[in-house]
What does this fold into?
Amino acid sequence: MASAYDTTDVPAPRPVSGEVVIRMAGVQKWYDSFHVLKDIELEVRKGERIVICGPSGSGKSTLIRCINQLEKHQKGTITVNGVTIDAHHRHLDQVRRDVGMVFQQFNLFPHLTVVENCMLAPMRVRGTSKQEARDIAMKYLARVRIPEQADKYPGQLSGGQQQRVAIARSLCMNPKVMLFDEPTSALDPEMVKEVLDTMIGLAEDGMTMLCVTHEMGFAKSVADRVIFMDRGEIVEQATPAEFFTNPRSERTRNFLGQILTH
Amino acid sequence: MIRAFGYNEFLFLVSAMQWTLALSAIAFVGGATVGLVIALARTSDIKAVRLAATGYIQLFQGTPLLMQLFLVFFGATVLGLDLNPWAAAALGLTLNASAFLGEIWRGCIQAVPRGQWEAASALGLRYPGLMRYVILPQAVKVAVPPTVGFLVQLIKSTSLAAIIGFTELTRAGQIVNNATFQPFLVFGIVAVLYFLMCWPLSLLSARLERRYALATR
It folds into this structure.
């Protein structure tokens, strides 16, 4: 896959020693008889940047979608910022307020302008005043470098711009963790860089991030940890240096052989 | 004594249009209110609610409107309620319209892409806010052309209220015909008057549909 990032240099591992923000323990999920997540154990620390990769259908999107319960898991526990997800709607609300998500298809609200997209959740979920919500929205639109598009509708923007708005929209809720579900896969190649740059900016500011992506250049330069999934299991997790130069499992080697050769 | 069909008879028919329009308006407002509840129930996550709404829709779509009007009108008497033809017609048409509008709008709600629900949920919006601010505004755009189209059906359906004795345009036609014995002329005029009420709406519906098709291309 083409990438704007050099894939040869791997920076030294960055020590991460923050508190645990996400803990998944023994998480299992089935779609009917298809076992899509098998006994997932995962801890994410504050400030950590994790890239999840793996072949399609390996369960990587499902894994991050379980964290904010867009998909329900059937067994195991998921704890976000000390709140364990259960049947209480209050707990789920708490988790969703703390977890931002960016989707492959952007999923901006087409009937609202860019700035209204960003204002909706602060106003309707947090009860922020309209003026304050607008100020917050403009701050984050400036941060993703498209404040001048604030009054346009999503349909008038390029894919890369839309995805940056989607990132800003999530940031307006001041999340503690950001989930990215293949954020660059639906983009034209020339727009991938602007979105990855925005994500790198977030990482540099210390945001805790879980990214499902095929951008191996991004993984090498930004991730603290790379997780490889196959057939619903976490097969391997390692620092990018280890992962790309010395993968332990056969499945990882096959996968890397396939994606790095073209 | 047979009267000739004159200007007064014509005026009587024209003024009966107001009752057809009034009944249509009441049935539409009532049907839309209940229909929204039905549409939301049909798209609910709760299975029992979904099934109940499905049953309601099938009941009203699977029986003739005339039977529904009879059942409301005569059923009220059985229950000891004295429902006048006005109330019976309004109630019967409201129930019927709500089933059809509920089903039309269910499709419109489900036409909003899944990603919109997911993005709104991920932002922390609960069902009422998610529906009100994200899903329904988008569903409404899809819903307008078929809803206006249904309004045409509804106006024509009000003619059945004549049978339970509500004096609207069709009943006025019957009355005039009984006095003049000129059925072809009288009911011809009645048909033209219906056409004058429905045709502009049909045009509007077609135009809205074209505009929607352009907007989503």
